[in-house]
Every structure is written in structure tokens, then in C-alpha cells.
Amino acid sequence: MNLARASLVFALLAGLGCSNSGANTSATTPSGPRPLAVMAVQDLGTVAHPPSVLVRDGGASGKVGGRVLWTFGDTLFTPSAVDGATSRSNTAALADFAQPLAAGEPVDARGAPSPLLPFTAEEQAYNAASGRPDERYALWPGSVVEDGAGGGLVYYLKLKVHPGFLNYEFLGTGVARVPAGSTTATREPGLLFPTPGPIFDNAFALDAFIYAYGALPGSTDQSVGVARVPLDQARDRAAYRFWDGSAWGSDPALARAVMRSIPGALTVSKNAWLGQYLAVHSLPFSNKVVLRVAAHPEGPWSDPVEALTGASPVNGTDYAGREHPELAQAGGQKIYLTYFNPTGTFRGELRMAEVTLK
């Protein structure tokens, strides 16, 4: 898993006095925004998981209580858990900043992980009655935001998985709170953004607001819009405002695309080195992870610049490229990206790379 190399990299940075607070680290401020260009890329290995886990994707993270909280989507494991399950819709793990790949979590007596977002009784009953992996409720974490009260907020997608290739019925975005030091969150009742409206599951604390990005309904080009809300009102649906292309308004139906060709995972951070906001995502049906910049969180955003090509062959199927801004070093010149790399049937890994910007 190459944890030793990753640990050494971060230990050396820590020894040099670099901060792990991401975009807030100090750096020489340029006279204007720096152009977006990549100088070097170094593979750091894979995010650790319990020996029982065969595969889990996703990989959103955030700083919660002074540690890195990792969140994952569908998680398959063997042997079965004490409760008989062989999979979870989502799981989570914690890591120290000095060794962010050395993620760990509580497991049961058979070595199986617990869910980050437990199902309701209704959801659990539906899944039990179906008994099928291709007909079930799923809860997929999209992002983690430190809540300013010692814990974190997890934005997640609620959906139904149906038979067929990528046959997902998205039901909306929910929010849950996870205490510091925990890998189990408490879901807020109901959904923050139910469909058929936009699905704002990629949320980030930028300046005085949380900015939440998500898929626009009816889009044929994988467009995303953006909403924002004061941090202390994140769980109040009425407090959100939506970018309509020229102003922030209260009607989500007026949200307009700020980026296109976003296949799912997306991160946005304020990068001090570039003097701009930085977006990271995978390209659709590609193993490339790309970067974009903008002067404002709502854009306009630049054309994508390739950050790295994943471990799959050309025309591979790597996905879920994203940045982990809480790990950024050297004032944002060094950023840390992950992507999911399938390695076989029901097998795969979350790989991390260090990207050095010019």
C-alpha cells in the first residue's frame, strides 16, 4: 500500500514546519493570480482499509476534530459481518494528518466495518425484503465540512439502485452530523434537497459560506449548479441561495450551470498559491483527473487542465477524482488528490497522488 512512503512525505513536511490546514497556509502572495500549471506528480499509494474489505469507493474527506475523516461509498467485505451483511452502503475511517493514508476504523468481532450513515427502519426493511444488491436503497457520502462546533457535516446522496448499468434513481441530498473522533453520523430528518430539484452533495467551506455543488435536473451534459449558505445555517434549507447566472436567489429552479462535464465527484477549495479557487474532478469515461480555476466560487471557471492520468490503462475507468484541501502543503503549491482505480471484478483501490503546481 506504500503507506511508508506516504508517511515519510508528510512527516518531512511536518518537520519543515508546514501546516496541514490546507488553503489557509501562509505563502508569498503573487502580484496577481498564478496561471494554472502542473510541475510534478508523485503517486503516494492507496488508502488503507480493514483486511475484510474487498473494495470501497468514494473517498471524500475533511478535517473533523483535528483528524482526517474519510468517507466511502459501497463497501464489500468478507467474511460476513456479525449482523449477516456482506456489504455496506457507506463506511468511514479516521487518520492522522502525519499519515493520512493509514486510515482506521472500528470493526465488529468478524472484522467488518460499520456504516457511517445508518439506514432508517423503512430503508432497512426495503433492502431486507429485496435481498438484492441491484434493488436497494443506498446512501453515498459526497463531502465533509467541519461545522465549527467540534464536529463535521456529511452531505450525502440518497438513491435507489435498480437492475441495469448505472440505473440509479436519485432521491435527493441529505445532511448528517458526525462528532469528532467518530465514524458514525446522525442523519437529519428528511432530505435537504429532494429531487426533482438540483442535487447539491459536493459541499465546501469557502470564506464565510458553505458552497454546495450538484447535478442540475434534466442536464444532458453533466452540468452542475451551486448553492451557498452561512456555515451556521447549513441544516436550514430555507437559508440556502442559488446562483442563477448573475445573482443569488431563493429559487433552486433558477440555478444555472457553473461547470459542465462533471461525472459525479467534485471538490472546490480556495488555493492560496494560485490566488484563485481550485476545482478538481475526473473527466467522464476517462482515467484523467483535471483542475479548473476561477476568481469566484460561482465562476466563470477555466477550461480543464490535466493533473494526472490514473493507474488504469488508456481509456480506463478510473473515477471519483477529488482534492483533499485539508492536506495541502506549501501554501497550496502541493495538493493531494485521490481517485478510485478498479483492479478487477468487485476489486479496487483509492489511490492518492501529490501534485505540485508551478
Describe the structure.
It is a single chain. With 358 residues, the chain is mainly β. It has a single domain (3-357), classed as 5 Propeller (Tachylectin-2, Chain A). It contains two helices and 22 strands. Strands 6, 7, 8, 9 and 10 form a five-stranded antiparallel sheet that branches. The protein has a five-stranded antiparallel sheet with strand order 11-12-13-14-15, with no helix packed on it. The chain has a four-stranded antiparallel sheet with strand order 1-22-21-20. The two termini are 28 Å apart. Residues 1-9 and 11-29 have low confidence and may be disordered.
Mean pLDDT: 91
Largest sheet: 5 strands, antiparallel
Work out the radius of gyration: 19 Å
What is the oligomeric state here? single chain
CATH topology name = Tachylectin-2, Chain A
Shape: globular
Strand content: 35-45%
The name of the CATH architecture is 5 Propeller
Number of helices: 2
Order of helices and strands: HEEEEEHEEEEEEEEEEEEEEEEE
By CATH reckoning, the class would read Mainly Beta
First and last CA, distance? 28 Å
The CATH homologous superfamily is named Glycosyl hydrolase domain, family 43
What's the number of domains? 1
Q: Residue ranges: pLDDT <50 for 5 or more in a row?
A: 1-9, 11-29
Secondary-structure class: mainly beta
> Helical proportion?
under 10%
Number of strands: 22
